[in-house]
Amino acid sequence: MADSLVALGLLRADQAQLEEAERLVREGLAMSRRNLPPGHPGVAKATTALGRVLEERGKYAEAIKALEEAVRLRSARGGAAPDLAASLSELANTHFYAGHYDASDSLNRRVLTIYREIFGERHPLVADALINLGAIQSERGHYGEAEQYYRQALDITQSWYGKDHPETASALSMLGRTLVFENRLDEAVVPLERALAIQERVYGKAHPRVASALNELGRVAQQQGKLEDAEKDYSRMAGIYRSVYGDKHYLIGIALSNLGSVYLAREEYARAERLFREVVKRFTETLSADHLNTGIARIKLGRALVRQNRYQEAEVESLAGYEILVRQTSSSVSWLKSARQDLVAEYQALNQPEKASKFQQEVAADERNAHGAASSK
Q1: What's the predicted TM-score (pTM) here?
Q2: Mean per-residue pLDDT for 239-265?
């Protein structure tokens, strides 16, 4: 009975019915604890499931606590290596979404080693670990490394499941996302449209995986100057996340932040400002004040303000975002470059030439590095 409750809870999580998923898994875990010895594999399995559901609900601190307990349970009595790796993988995912990239990277490398030892090089669980490592490199701005991980994962996943499977779609989405970051837009459209078609067929029109594919297609449309298409994609994405998560999830902030970027491109600066202020507040509450997403949102808010010649307010936001990103990402990340350019404009307007000079030097270094990279190709 407990196993069935947990399995049904995980199915509800896959169906994005997260409140029901948590209720079922908690009921199954409580039943397991009442009827099994503390170190029984069933207790560890249910504890891992609870951690996964809490992670999907954005309750990262609670999820980390549950998953660390699951890892402890599965390690204490020499639990089976695949089960331990499953708990470690969920813990790594939760650290990733919480912005703890070093912890996630370390855990995912451990998971990858375990899965390769057990299953060899060509197993879907190996592909999952490779995707996770690629996501970390992408967040850090190391897009070439991320692409290598994603291509390895796609090759494994597609050969195992076939070309029309949701796991293949997930790998296609991640590859397409990195190609967008590398500004290879025409290449990116093909895997992203394939991914969206598969996800809609499998999950229906209103599922987080569909929203994720829309996010990447919106990004392509935006960079191609197709702002109406981008607005439609991001608006639909926000609607899906609200229907699934209510109004308190960071993923809604992702959608609204992207929608604000469309308004910024249209020179609707006051409209963009309102959205970015909401996004900063949402990320601060659901992630943290020093999360990368919060930093990017503050840089975007600074840009909306500087476009309205509100330099004093803009400087506060641009500098705060810059300081968050400079501690956590590669110096070549596009939003870090944007922050430097905006800070130069702000300090010049505020008649603070020494501060402007510092960021002018960083902008010049960016340009030299970009020229050097282009020359070496």
Answers
A1: 0.70
A2: 93
Of 157, 186, 183, the closest CA to residue 172 belongs to: 157
pLDDT digits (tens, 9 = 90+) for 291-332: 999 999 999 999 999 999 999 999 999 999 999 998 887 776
User: Average pLDDT, stretch 345-351?
Assistant: 95
